[in-house]
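batch job 7 of whatever, protein = Phage terminase, small subunit
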Amino acid sequence: MTRRKRSDSTAATVAAFAGASMAIEPPKPLTNQELFYWHDITRARAREDWTAIDLAHAWNLSKLLAYIEQSHTDIAAQGLTLINERGTPVDNPAISRLEKLSRLALSYSTKLHIHAEATVGKSEDSAKRATKQRKAGQTLDDMGSLIARPQ
């Protein structure tokens, strides 16, 4: 079994730049809306870590995320409840579709190891970073106009 390259090596840095400069092509065609998600999904991991089956799952996930977006659009346009042919208010079917699609997308994200813990780190580490950022923001606020900040 060959050893993996160290992530702090020069070769790893070169590979990272090469991976970042070239987009991974989907295994099957996608719409522009689906391609938006495809690029976000495939950038979540190093290029060299994607296998053919992973790319097939990523393709499915990009389609699911586009369907989720469409479900949100449907709910926004139609509302949470609809009136059926008998005049009875019923839950919009797009809500249950959204729930099913969201669970499936979460499952794919976990299997592809692109969920929050895999990409950002453990929640306690994230909380520490957020605390540091809040403290830095407070320090900048305390300094007033001494340091220029974006509007």
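notes: The mean pLDDT is 83.
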